[in-house]
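Hello, quick one for you while I still have it in my head. My current little project is about how a certain protein chain folds up. You're getting the sequence in one-letter code plus the fold written as tokens. Would you mind checking whether the tokens look sensible for this chain? Here's the protein in full, and shout if anything looks odd to you:
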Amino acid sequence: MKLPLFGTTLPQLEEIAESMGLPPFTARQIANWLYRKNVRSIDAMTNLSLASRDRLASDYVMGLEDPAKVSASTDGTRKYLYRAGSAGNPGGSRFVEAAYIPEANRSTLCLSTQIGCKMGCLFCMTGKQGFQGQLSATEILNQFASLPEKNSVTNLVYMGMGEPLDNLDPVMQSLEILSADWGYGMSPARITVSTIGIVPGIQRFLSESGAHLAVSMHSPFEEERRRLMPVQHVYPLREVLELLRSSDMPRQRRVSFEYIVFGGLNHSPAHVKEIARLLAGIRSRVNLIRFHTIPDTPLLPATDEQMIIFQNRLKAKGILTTIRKSRGEDILAACGLLSTRELTSPAVAADY
């Protein structure tokens, strides 16, 4: 099976060039074609000799693949379905989703990192799908590179299907390619990686990447959070916060705490007081997120009034707090709704 060139780092390209007897500078030429000139075929790399291109094509493919399907929301959000596992990764009949969210002054692409998810959070459709596989760096970046609106994207968020820090090597590789001068050259300040709080992954992410971090909190109380998020058994929120306090992060690097507000559950004055206590000494913001009802869960959405009251109480404690605008709910592209459990073959995808 031929391996994908797209999604490889400069050091990996240097190894490929050396193994094929190509000049060392060939690696940077290939990277330029992949990530700056956005070619779709090895044959289009015209500053490589024909013999070099033939040698590459004997063992490698580009690894890029167009979306299999698109769904458009009334609010302008578009959800793209991508085939997973088809570029050097067996089992290519699985699918993942990415959401493109245009706004007045920015356009955000929400990337997936896994096929399904193994974390089992009570409020998430992806978790109910179960875990079906990891995405390669090629497949993560393909959601960006093959997006029809790619040139309009200003921000990337790793907040789609899966837990990014449970697929750490491909995620870090994709971040390197996005931000390196030989790659896309994107500012890390335009990229946010979300996690439910996997401590070893956070440690490596903070040391090797300059991108922003978003931590899913959803409750400041241990037992309540444990019922919502089983990860609390393994990596308690207090350990995540201790790590963030001990990390030497520059002021321009942001940590945000994602907080889905459930009606009658996690927005009381006691929650406000505990959140303020826990976040003392951490430069951060809290993003309040509306809950979108999913099957087989007892959780309920909060009202708009409850959201605003909760926000104002947090602000009164000196916590920068925003309410995230819900986008793409009508096409199941909003927070917690991404799921491709039923999509297990190209034939199914055609009817998606």
